[in-house]
Amino acid sequence: xxxxxxxxxxxxxxxxxxxxxxxxxxxxxxxxxxxxxxxxxxxxxxxxxxxxxxxxxxxxxxxxxxxxxxxxxxxxxxxxxxxxxxxxxxxxxxxxxxxxxxxxxxxxxxxxxxxxxxxxxxxxxxxxxxxxxxxxxxxxxxxxxxxxxxxxxxxxxxxxxxxxxxxxxxxxxxxxxxxxxxxxxxxxxxxxxxxxxxxxxxxxxxxxxxxxxxxxxxxxxxxxxxxxxxxxxxxxxxxxxxxxxxxxxxxxxxxxxxxxxxxxxxxxxxxxxxxxxxxxxxxxxxxxxxxxxxxxxxxxxxxxxxxxxxxxxxxxxxxxxxxxxxxxxxxxxxxxxxxxxxxxxxxxxxxxxxxxxxxxxxxxxxxxxxxxxxxxxxxxxxxxxxxxxxxxxxxxxxxxxxxxxxxxxxxxxxxxxxxxxxxxxxxxxxxxxxxxxxxxxxxxxxxxxxxxxxxxxxxxxxxxxxxxxxxxxxxxxxxxxxxxxxxxxxxxxxxxxxxxxxxxxxxxxxxxxxxxxxxx
Length: 520
Description:
The structure is a single chain. Among the domains are: 183-196 and 214-273 and 290-315, Phosphorylase Kinase, domain 1 (2-Layer Sandwich), CATH 3.30.200; 456-516, no CATH class. 17% of the residues lie in helices and 18% in strands. It contains 9 helices and 22 strands. The protein has helices at residues 200-206, 260-283, 339-354, 393-402, 407-411, 418-423, 471-476, 496-501, 511-516, and strands at residues 95-97, 153-155, 182-191, 195-196, 213-222, 228-229, 233-240, 247-252, 291-292, 296-299, 310-315, 322-323, 359-362, 365-367, 370-371, 375-378, 438-440, 449-451, 456-458, 461-466, 478-482, 491-495.
């Protein structure tokens, strides 16, 4: 059970640059309402526990030279909450819930309401980690409602809200007939931009309305029991009826649901992230490919608009997640053998520069080069305002406080710097070369980024492009059906995977009769 952690004496002295000093924000995301911080309390708790932060009114001191020092990591150090993020509805709470989600879903990081004192000399000193110690929120993100909280504890279990939920304890048996026992008939929403050209990113940056969504229907097969859970969601293995692609369905626990508007905003954020990634990849001639997972919102009943019937469908990703940055002060330490770390840091910088300081994408974590669940920072407070981790301009300041340009930033000729941001005199690259055509896989539930020149194409479906995983399924799921049109009996070939990938029912007439009837 959760237990209270008492502040240590003399906590003000923790700001000294000693081998045991720490900053509690290392690896967290801060929110708009945690906008005023000063004192940091370090608690000596056992491995796996969290530490507390107490904060007092002050101001962000971006213009003080040396205010933010180099972040250093030393052997054996750890932080609490690696791979996790905080939740929005955490009023008057003080416990961090241990989260077993593979994708680092949700944790509660808590702060006392104060002001960030950026202008106070020596307020934040060097971030150092020493063997055996931990800091709060390594790799976490904080949210807009992490206010009025101070004491942080760790819950060794899931608490009373677990209810009657039981969890899978065996490895997934994807190919075992009947293993996916639940069948859901759902309506699905997804961003429908799959072909990107020179104007696509500009249009999407200009207005949310330019990031349009489409709706379709699917049959989803899933396990009746989840295999993992976080504070608000449980994850179950899933597949569609006609595909071998592996998915995860995430459902909200009782009382933790979001309305459809939040899902729509999340999907638009991920669509914009993909648009940035498509251009980033093209500018680097696909030398450093990055991609974002496809998020699809599923509605299963009439209560979906209120959140109770909303599910999310995402590709199942197997492997160890690596966190590269977040929306506060965490940046993964550079190392010669970690090329993708430099790619990730340059991508965040690129999104700021390419948007002329309108956006910045961070909280980048991935398995291999596949990023998932990013955060976006916006200059306009009305853009993506439902996002819990959008810190607006403060998010820009946090990023540039820790960012160091690398060879990829220089290859992209990025000009903006933290010093420019602090002075208010930003410079940007003025001309961006024409990009090579890039597309996303035409499977609406996949949408993996692929080069147009190397994408798989079929003469049967000439306007569609396919990734390596989806391409073979066009033929492997082909069957012969009788055409139901009037006239002599005849058969035609139909790909179950193709029609499912578009969210369409399979036709009962051959292509010739469809054309005569004016059907697509």
